[in-house]
Write a structure and sequence with these properties.
Layout lengths: L1 E4 L5 E3 L7 E6 L8 H6 L8 H15 L4 E3 L10 H17 L2 E5 L9 H4 L11 H6 L4 E4 L5 E4 L4 H8 L3 H4 L10 H7 L10 H4 L2 H4 L12 H13 L4 H4 L1
Parallel strand pairs: 3-4, 3-5, 5-6
Antiparallel strand pairs: 1-2, 1-4, 6-7
């Protein structure tokens, strides 16, 4: 696992035991930076919106005494297919093992009333949001100016209403494995992904399955996901879904 030093913004690779780390959950937007951009410190790096987002997040993480951090934009070398496959298959576990998850709601106004604005944030429509909300025990929500607006525990019933995921599952008091496959599938209904394959790939951790990434396979990815679920589980509700 490749982590980012929150003070120097330099990478370090960890194998086996990893130090405590913070993790960022966010919506991909314009000017995101890649692993190579940050590693090579390209000339335009400081002016890129995606890098400024990482700088702000690392500053807050460092203030909370986190030395290490992980973010999907630049901590994965996406030119390396083996690393990309391993990362996507490990994503749920990495969020689960994070000491804290920071959610950046870039479209939540500073003066926005949470009850009205929270359900409309793009972050909640993303396919990847499910595992990023379910896996970590500690989740903090920040608005577009990086003001802390609340935590998963504090928003638990609001989050239940927005996502359809029971509060006791969100808090970890009930195991996600106790929920039927059909119900878990229903959580993902109408969620958005940039790539059609990610409709399946973002659910790997939710169903505790692994499979190779084949970008370009389109809707066949979801068929492979169903086959892997059937192979591993005797829960017949998948056919009802």
């Amino acid at each position: 696992m490749r982590l980012l030093n929150t003070r120097t913004l330099a990478f370090e690779q960890f194998f086996g035991h990893r130090p405590p780390y913070a993790i960022l959950s966010h919506t991909w937007e314009g000017e995101e930076v890649s692993h190579q951009d940050v590693r090579d410190r390209i000339p335009s790096l400081e002016s890129r919106q995606g890098y400024r987002k990482i700088q702000q997040w690392c500053r807050i993480a460092a203030e909370q005494r986190f030395e290490w951090a992980w973010v999907d934009t630049c901590c994965i070398d996406k030119t390396n297919n083996a690393e990309l496959t391993e990362s996507i298959n490990s994503m749920f576990r990495w969020y689960q093992q994070a000491a804290a998850c920071f959610v950046y709601l870039s479209d939540l106004p500073v003066d926005g009333e949470l009850k009205t604005n929270l359900p409309n944030c793009r972050w909640f429509r993303r396919g990847w949001t499910l595992q990023e909300l379910l896996a970590p025990s500690k989740v903090q929500f920040y608005d577009q100016a990086w003001n802390l607006r609340g935590t998963k525990d504090g928003f638990i019933f609001r989050l239940e209403s927005i996502t359809g995921i029971p509060a006791n599952v969100l808090t970890g008091h009930a195991s996600i494995r106790q929920i039927s496959i059909a119900d878990r599938m229903s959580w993902a209904a109408n969620r958005e992904t940039t790539r059609s394959e990610d409709v399946a790939y973002c659910l790997l951790g939710i169903f505790d399955v692994n499979m190779p990434m084949i970008y370009g396979e389109g809707e066949n990815a979801f068929r492979r996901l169903q086959e892997e679920i059937i192979r591993k589980s005797n829960d017949m509700t998948i056919f009802a879904w």
